[in-house]
Design a protein that fits this description.
CATH architecture: 3-Layer(bab) Sandwich
CATH topology: minor pseudopilin epsh fold
Number of helices: 1
Radius of gyration: 25 Å
CATH class: Alpha Beta
């Protein structure tokens, strides 16, 4: 062993340079990851909305009864926007609101996501008939409650009862198949 060999290790300058580079990379990556996570949450909630609509249609077909899907406020009244929950229920008294005693099949919390219902004739609900057809066509737009995130998706319901999700593969803000603008926050 050589007594005069210098100990090997990193100098404080090398460590500081490495930390500075890591901090710069982190500062660039975090906003991109945050936006990615918010877009992913919107996409997941859109799939959940589509599944709820498909459930309502399936129940209408299997039970041969009309089933309703809508966003509701604190008093369980169907609303087009600012709803707290998305419900799938059988509206026995046909008042377009969820009441005590009516059969509730699904209750989805809308936490940190903004849903806006746009159905035929401005109705705040979509119903499915005994034969699986939609009594109202329209869409449910899913957006982030964060005003800085201008990204949204739609679950689109056709009168035939068919349900599809919007897709904006080129990022221009328009649904690829339907050509309609997906607008969040009045943009």
């Amino acid at each position: 062993m050589n007594r005069f060999a210098l100990p090997r290790g990193f100098t404080i300058v090398e460590l500081l340079v490495t930390l500075a580079i890591a901090a710069i990379l982190l500062a660039v990556a975090v906003p991109s990851f945050t936006l990615f996570a918010q877009k992913r949450a919107i996409s997941q909630k859109t799939v959940q909305v589509r599944n709820a609509l498909e459930l309502a249609r399936g129940l209408a077909l299997s039970q041969r009864q009309v089933w309703t899907a809508c966003t509701v406020d604190a008093s369980n009244s169907c609303v087009s926007s600012a709803g707290l929950r998305l419900l799938v229920f059988r509206d026995d008294n046909d008042d377009k609101d969820f009441n005590t005693g009516e059969m509730l099949h699904q209750d989805i919390d809308i936490n940190s996501i903004e849903l806006e219902m746009s159905a035929s004739f401005g109705r705040p609900y979509i119903r499915f008939a005994r034969n699986g057809e939609a009594l109202e066509s329209g869409n449910i737009e899913v957006c982030s409650t964060n005003q800085a995130v201008d990204y949204g998706r739609q679950a689109i319901v056709f009168r035939s009862g068919r349900i599809r999700l919007s897709n904006d593969s080129d990022g221009d803000g328009y649904d690829d198949a339907g050509g309609t603008k997906i607008e969040c926050h009045g943009s």
